[in-house]
Each structure stands twice: as C-alpha cells, then as structure tokens.
Fold:
Amino acid sequence: MVDFLLNIELHNNSSYQQQIREKLVQLINQDAFADKALPPSRKMAQLIGVSRNTIILVYESLVEEGYLISRERRGYFVDPDLPVEANLAVEDVHPLSPSHAPNWGKRLQKNLSQFTSLNKDKDWLKYPYPFIYGQINAQEFPTYQWRECSRKVESRGKVHEWVEGFMGEDDPELVTQIRQQILSKRGIVAQADEILITLGTQNSLFLLANLLAGEKVTFGVEDPGHADLRQIISLCHSPVKPLALDSEGLQVGQQLKECRYVCVTPSHQYPTTVTMTVKRRKALLEQARKDNFVVIEDDYESEVNFIEKPLPALKSFDQHGRVIYVGSLSKSLSPGIRIGYLVADKKLVKELRKLRHLHYRHPPANNQRIIALFIAQGYYDSHVRRMRRSYEEKWLLMQQGIERYLSACEIHSTAGSFCFWIGLPESMPSHLLRAAAAAKGILIESGDSLFSQEHAPKNYIRLGFSAINHDKILPGLAILGKLIDDLQKAI
Amino acid sequence: MVDFLLNIELHNNSSYQQQIREKLVQLINQDAFADKALPPSRKMAQLIGVSRNTIILVYESLVEEGYLISRERRGYFVDPDLPVEANLAVEDVHPLSPSHAPNWGKRLQKNLSQFTSLNKDKDWLKYPYPFIYGQINAQEFPTYQWRECSRKVESRGKVHEWVEGFMGEDDPELVTQIRQQILSKRGIVAQADEILITLGTQNSLFLLANLLAGEKVTFGVEDPGHADLRQIISLCHSPVKPLALDSEGLQVGQQLKECRYVCVTPSHQYPTTVTMTVKRRKALLEQARKDNFVVIEDDYESEVNFIEKPLPALKSFDQHGRVIYVGSLSKSLSPGIRIGYLVADKKLVKELRKLRHLHYRHPPANNQRIIALFIAQGYYDSHVRRMRRSYEEKWLLMQQGIERYLSACEIHSTAGSFCFWIGLPESMPSHLLRAAAAAKGILIESGDSLFSQEHAPKNYIRLGFSAINHDKILPGLAILGKLIDDLQKAI
Structure:
C-alpha cells in the first residue's frame, strides 16, 4: 500500500514538509488511498527518513485544509466528503483526428515568424561568462527588503487593499512614489492623471502603437535600434522609417519631416550607448513643434552615468507636450516582476487606460502595492545606489579588459550604460564569433537583428555586463580577445 | 529645524517604523536636513510620541541603506555622498504652451469612447449591499497560505529562480500544476506546449483576437454576452455576429454557419447562467467540424455547481482540436493577481507566445511561482472547496430572498454561478432601478450593456453574490423588493 511513497526523493531545495505535502496532495487527488488509512506517522517517518514530527505537522496541515480527517485510534483518512473530481466522466475522449483539425497556418492573421528576435539564450545562466544584456545578477537583488515589503502588503490587515484589483485604475500609492521619487530625479513633473502603470517598456510601447499607429502614420525608429519596437509598429500597420544617428545621437532635420512619431533613446542610444547632447535635444523638440510630430522617449537606462551627473530626461525640456516618456524597473530592479510606467498628456493617458482595460485590466495589484512600499521606504533608491557602485566597478573592468584584449576592435565607449557596443574587424561576421565564443562558454550578442536594413553591417556585437560576476569579466574578455585574433588569422 | 517633523501624524494602519522611515526618506530627498544633524533619538521620540527604540531602529536602518551616517558623539547626518538628484538642473521648464501641443483627438486611431463598459462602480466597497459580480470578499482570501508560499518563493535561495524573468517562456512549475490539478478536474488532458499563461481571461481573449481576427473573419458572440469581448473583436477589425440562446444554451444551426469563431460560455452562460446541455455541446462540436469553425470556450466559473457534479469542459469532448479553452483564477482566487491560462493547439500556442512576447513578455514571474506553489501545496483546491461551501450558503439565501421579495420578477435560477439573472417587470428600465437602489446603498448591475443590439430588452439586472456578506443578502433583497414594488406602482 505505502510502497509508492518510497519514491518521495527528498532534496534540499525546499523544506521536507513542503515536499511531502505536495506529494500527498498529488496522491490524494489520484485517489491512491481510497478509504484506507494513511501510513501511521511513525512508519511513514521511517519510510522516507524524516522525523516523526515532520510527518505529524504535514498530516495536521492537511486536516486543516480539508484533505484528511483524523479518526481516534485509527489514524488519518482521506476526508470522504472530498470531491474526487479527477474522475470526471469524460466518455467521449478519443485520440485526436487530425484530418478534421483546423488549418492553423491559414487562420493566423499575423505572420509572426517574419520577425527575427534578438537571439537571447534562455539558458544563459549556464554560461560561465554571460556578457548578456538586460538581465541582472540575482545575487544582487535586495531580497531582504523585498520580502519585508511583501510581508507587510500581504498581511491580514492589508490584503483587502489589493486582492480585489483596482478596476482598471492604478495603485495610487505607486503612482505617488513614481512621481515623487523616480520622475522627479529625471526632472519630470507629472500629475497623477498623466501617468499609466504598465507591464514594462515593451508593454508601454505596445499600448502606444496599438492606439496611435495606422497605415498612414509613419514611426521613425533609430537604426540600429530596438528590434521589438520595429516589430510592434509593423504589427500595428504603421510604416517604420529607419533613422540615422551620429556622435550626438539621433540626427534631426530632413529625415524626421515625414514622421508622425519619433522613437528615441536619448539617455543612452540603444544599442550604441551614445548620449544625446543637450543641443541636439533642444533641436529635436524644436523640430517636433515645427513639423508637428511627437517624440516617444524610451528612458530605459536613465539613472546610470558613471562619470558625471546624468542629464535630465528629454521630457523635462518639453514645453509643448510633445514628448511621451516611457520608463521601467526592469533594468534597475528585476526584469521578472514586469513593472513600467509612461507619462503623457492626460487625454492620451485616459484613452490608454481604456485600451489597457481591454488588453488585461491592470498590472497585478499585489506587485504594484509591494513596489510602492519598496520605493517609499527608500529601498529602491538605496538599491539603485548600490547597483551603481557595483556597475561602475564592472564598467571599469570592462574598459580595461576591452582595451587590453580587444585591440583589433572599434570601441564605442560611453560614460553610462550596462553594455559596450563593439565593431569587430570588418571581415568578421558577428554571428560567427558568437557561435565560436559560445563553444568556449562565452555568451555575447550579435548586433545583426538590431539593424533595420538587410545591407547593414554584420560585424557588431554587444557586450552586456549587468548579469556577469565581477571576477569573470577580465578572464572572459581575455578568451574572447584571443578568439577574435585567431578568427582574424583564419578568415 | 525639526518643527516640520511634527506633522508626522502616525496612524495605526501600518507600523510606526514604516511611517517614520517613509517620512524621513521624503525629507532627505528634499534635502531638508542639509548638513545638519538629525534630531537626537530621544528628542525625536518625544516630538512624535513614540519610544526611543523605534527611532533608533529607523535611524540604523537608514544607515544600513546608505541614507545616513552616524558620527561619534555628534549624531546622525545625511550621508554627504548621497546624490541629491532631486535638484537636477531643469533650466528650460516653462509652463506648457497648449497652442503648440499635439491635437490628440485627431491622432487616436481607435475610438474607444464608442465602447460602453459595464458601469462598475470602483467604490463598490462603500455600499452596504454590494450585489456586484466578479469581485470577491477579501476576508475570505487565504491570506495565511498565500503568505507562506510568497515567503518561500521570495527566500534567498529561491529568488534567483524568478527574478530574471522567464525570457518569454512560462513557469514550468505553474504549467505542471495547472495541467495536473486544474485542467484534469475539467476533464482536459493537455501537454505543456498546449498551454499559455496569461493575465486572465480578458488577456487570453485579447491575444486570440489580435492573432486571429481580421476584416473578413466573423466572430459569433452570445447575446446577451461578454461586452468587453465584443469590443476586443471590433478593435481587431472582425465583424461580430450576435448569437441567439435558448434554455439549453447557445443555439446551433444556421446562425453559426457564417462564423469562423464561436465564443461560448458553456458551464454557465454569461450572463444568463444557463448551463449548456451535453446534447447541445455535442451538436456544437459536430457543426464546428462540418462547417469548419473554431469554438472559443470561456470557462470562467467552471468549478461551481451547488446541486450536482459540474459537467466537464466542452474542450474535454473535443476530438478534432476545434476548441480553444480559456480559464482564470480571477473568480476563484483573486481578480487583483491577474493570472489566467489558455489551452489550444501547440502550433497556435507557439504563435500566441511570440505575440505575448511583443505585448508584454510574460506575466510577472514572482506571481507565477507563488501560485504554482500555492496549487502544489493543496491550498488552491482547499480554498475552492471552502468557497464553494460559502457560496452555496449564499446561493441558498439568494434563492430564498428572491422568491420572497422579488415576486414581481422573472427569475432565471440555475444550479451554479455566482449571480442571478433577473427580468424586471417589462415596463421597468433596469437603469432606473439601479439608480434608485444605489441611493439606498444597494449596488446592482444593469444588464443593458450586455446585449449587443439597441432594441434589446432594457429590463434585465444581474445580482452577484460573491462579494456581499452572508448577513447582508436577505436584508438587501428585502429593500430591493420593496423598491421594485414601489417603482411599479409609480411607473
């Protein structure tokens, strides 16, 4: 009877109680015990090699949750009132008959396979040298502070504030904290009704495109630039115009004239990391007014500059309501939690809120409330400061290592950003180096998919350093440099 | 100097430490202390009326977080290295010049104001008798169990499993739990690659419409039915065909012939609560095969039937891959957490996953992992069982009360669902009753916006009982009944 329990293989990754309870719930759902008693706690404890107390605690918690009942002197039984729903009568399930299945290929109204995504490797954690961009080092996450906030928000007296959701609104406390502690540091003054909470930058951009794009509405996008942004815009039927850059950032003038929307990354151009000069920012806004276009500012790495004070956001120079500002906590706190925000004219925010309501109502309410508290308690700022110090050290190591080992390459070094944009020798395709490096445990990103045109250069790579450990940087770059030199001889 | 601190008005809604720290972080950010010492702990404690220990703990935590430094015998000071970013130079901010602002009215590509939403009152908690649908009673949320799972998932050894996000994938543990413990109870056998995690039913439907709708692709929607679904489909440019119902649920036959997609709510028709008979289910699937349409099954209230065993999902009868199944935890656990799932052909799921990646990447990873554990530990099932008992009691009270007090009305009583669909006397417009009831503290929903046609009946209301307390049901219905009688005399 209890033999099958022997295959509870306990590991140290979670508590024994948790593992045993999970297994018992499974067995109960499969009706494995029927009307027989569960093994007595002493026997069970021996069988799977834990203390008897552990078993008793699990049994008692299952009584509490209505799975088991305890019968005097006879032991624990599955509650006979427990509905055995796993055995729902499904008379008609036969194997699928594929001949009558719909033809999905013909039914799709969007061809998503046309979109090449940045080939991010979801197994990046397995690489000893992950020079990946957009991820963080989980060990640096402020676990203790996050848990404290989570514990407070999820306490009995507080749950009712978020568990019902916000009916399409946002958490007013989060909006306040973003205004007071995040936007103010970027020089942005915004009222509550000019802010919308989203699921991150990607989601902000999608909502904007869904509302504003259309067949005759041209969107300008930096080239190279954010590949997923180009795809969103195409998905929403707008023409995408690739925009040229120079050492001051996006070029203003003729190329912007036909655009109704201009998408830019002024703090650090994505992916070249160039910071747009103040002069250029003013020229851009002046042209926006004159030529009646709207600027969408993606301030994805705003709060970082290792050498001098960062410039305020482009939005802070905006006198005519011509800038929509997009920010997120993905780079600064966690890409897994998915919280971002946008700042725009309140008329526009009102419409975006309606649209968001149809898309998904609102970002999860518990996370909104936890983050509000996390910011209010000063934990967010102090985390950003800590990360800045950590990133500054890494950035210096990167500079050193790149100078020392990647001398064959063209380096675009800037004073901020969590990555370096690097031109390989012209004859060396980045995808070739990427594959060769991966074989040696080094993960780098090819820049190919960030360019919009087919005849674009194929010899750019991006080296991110937000996720890699300090002590892996120099050794990793040494191996990479050797590889580049070897490849150059071989080509 | 410290006078402004006097306006820390402490309340009992959160801990004193939390409130004082929040206030001090605010003051430090405003540079209120400059280079002067903070008030000594003893003085500060007297000033705001808390123990000295509380102040010392707050000061020390701010030292820990890099806001303060402690100087021997001189007290606590703001760390002079703390960047004062609130004072970013924003030379150019003038008041907005509205004459140069974009004309947003002309720029919107979607007219969202055409969509009338169910007029849900976000202040519903303030009504003594909230007969509202889709909300829950926060006191019944399994706070203790949720916190236990949250605490485990957010522990130092576990954070790394979710804080980086899932790169467009889903939490495999959540997918496993949904397969084994939720879908199995609905008679559905699904592989992991046939499941997509979403932000709830609304989000599942939006992703489907975004991928499958188009100008010549007709979607059939029950009438009356889910108003936001009609809006999503229109937003995605598909024609919406209203579909007639009868006492067995959706009518099959001629009216479905021109549909490429048929959206149904078989377990309890939304909003009339009728359960589709087995005979009708089989006829619907047979016609789907013959006329080559696909059925989208919204199983929003699946797990509830107060009288007999609930029928398995329509999807469980599906032999030809013609049913897309949509479910969520909003009704059973919390509408605030925003987690749902869909089951479909793996080719379709693969495309939907790509689309979701462009929309918002993935639902927040911490919530996915917490819910996975919550289900695995048996807490979800045991919560559903508890709620079923609670709802059954309420449902019986509702039946009693409606019979006793609403005798002038036509009642559509069914054995499941968290609401009653009620026809008022024909001459009584539901919006009139809604307004009159609200004035007496009773919140009811007018059915008007759930019908698709303009000449639809105006005398239907929905009475939900998931959020209202047991002891408010009979008194609330008594007042409502009196109001209906009075109104009938007055009209």
About this structure: Residues 86-92 of chain A have pLDDT under 50 and may be disordered. The CA atoms of residues 138 and 202 of chain A lie 22 Å apart. Chain A touches chain B through 141 residues (CB under 8 Å).
